[in-house]
Amino acid sequence: MAIKERSLEETPTWAVAVVCFVLLFISIMIEYFLHFIGHWFKKKHKKALSEALEKVKAELMLLGFISLLLVVLQTPVSQICIPRNIAATWHPCSNQQEIAKYGKDYIDDGRKILEDFDSNDFYSPRRSLATKGYDKCAEKGKVALVSAYGIHQLHIFIFVLAVFHVLYCIITYALGKTKMKKWKSWERETKTIEYQYANDPERFRFARDTSFGRRHLNIWSKSTFTLWITCFFRQFFGSVTKVDYLTLRHGFIMAHLPAGSAARFDFQKYIERSLEQDFTVVVGISPLIWCIAVLFILTNTHGWNSYLWLPFIPLLVILIVGAKLQMIISKLGLRIQEKGDVVKGAPVVEPGDDLFWFGRPRFILFLIHLVLFTNAFQLAFFVWSTYEFTLKNCFHHKTEDIAIRITMGFVNFFNYTYYTKA
């Protein structure tokens, strides 16, 4: 005979008080930690990072509000009944897998969990319905839209997704800062006599003979198709090279700073501030990205073989973005040559919004943001499904599925951090 779980009426008050105290202590510690980080950002005049922290708090509050709604609406949603023939569609498992796992009655009755006893005649705690008493839909010959236990599992997934998204953002920012440290040596080089001599403003040279010209002005740049192919493969050999950095630095100074201020300007610190500003965009989750997350959940349906194509979409997007960024730099070189074969001093590039897709530079930032969230979503979904249903389950029941999800999750992550500041 099954043992009924105790309610709060039958639970010692000291046990309830201990649990409440632990939860409050953890929550207060997290709040104080975030407050300390925010105070430190303001003290260091990191305005962009302070705004990013506020966005993280907002996202955590949104996810917490969603979790609260799931708890409050658990019973009403689980009492929404739908016909069995509709409930039998779009399952993660095939019928054979469901029969093997739950028995034939699972398919016939359309219920998520039946009275499944273990060897000691007790309910399995991971397979018992989180309902009060009985299934009201079953007595009507129907099935619950989402069972109370299913809502409880969704609640856990939202928590895992929040943790992974925050960790992804923090690690990405840290790796981006680490990557830009090598640019400090390039910045110091601009203060040397050798650099000043090599970029003498009174010196005339052919555009194709400059370091920037030799890299971007060649036979492959004469055709748009071959230029795209070249830029696609070029991204694998250094997202930002020294010659590109120095040329972009010179072009930025000529466009935005008065003459004679080049020696005092630190372009590397400016890029760091830009990274912090971009970070404020990346940590947020827009409604469009939430809709895409819902579509990802929808694709985990038996027969769609989503593991064969879904993990590769972020990789394809980030590779296209990397090629596009290389393409923009190459077009800057072509614009220099279009003005004349001879340049005076260092070549001056003139970036413009027309070089970006739809004339919107922030669209590329949106794509990068999308890749980060989808990577965090897929790894969070993998960890959650493994925790809830063991390693091999209906969401990834094949070994190659598991290998693809894990491998592509980490490959996409490192590709993302590699190209974010290209």
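the 2nd protein, sequnce then structure:
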Amino acid sequence: MTAYAIGNLHPKPVLDEEVFTYMERIQGTLDPFGGRFLVHGAPAREVPEGDWPGAVVIIGFPSYENARAWYDSAAYQALIPLRTRHMAGDILLIDGVADGYDPAATAAAMRAASGDPA
């Protein structure tokens, strides 16, 4: 099942050479794990609900295990300080949904588990 690394990053107004080095090298850390950028550093075009400061990064992986192995890899761990010294943010690793996912079936299972007979 596809998995994702998602970041909500808050870069400083002036970026440092380390950020450029990070960006130049990150793809090489993703390649062995099948990672590819789906969104890279884009500010939200529109926020119809809530508040979303920062820039969005979404990286797709073939599986959660690949995403976790990438994040834990020595190659990526060596790059992390180049980013974190220049931008704060939140990073998460998350599973996608399986092919054929049905939100109505999920709702029915949740309703049954809650004891709601509706």
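The mean pLDDT is 93. The domain at 3-114 is CATH 3.30.70.100 (Alpha-Beta Plaits).
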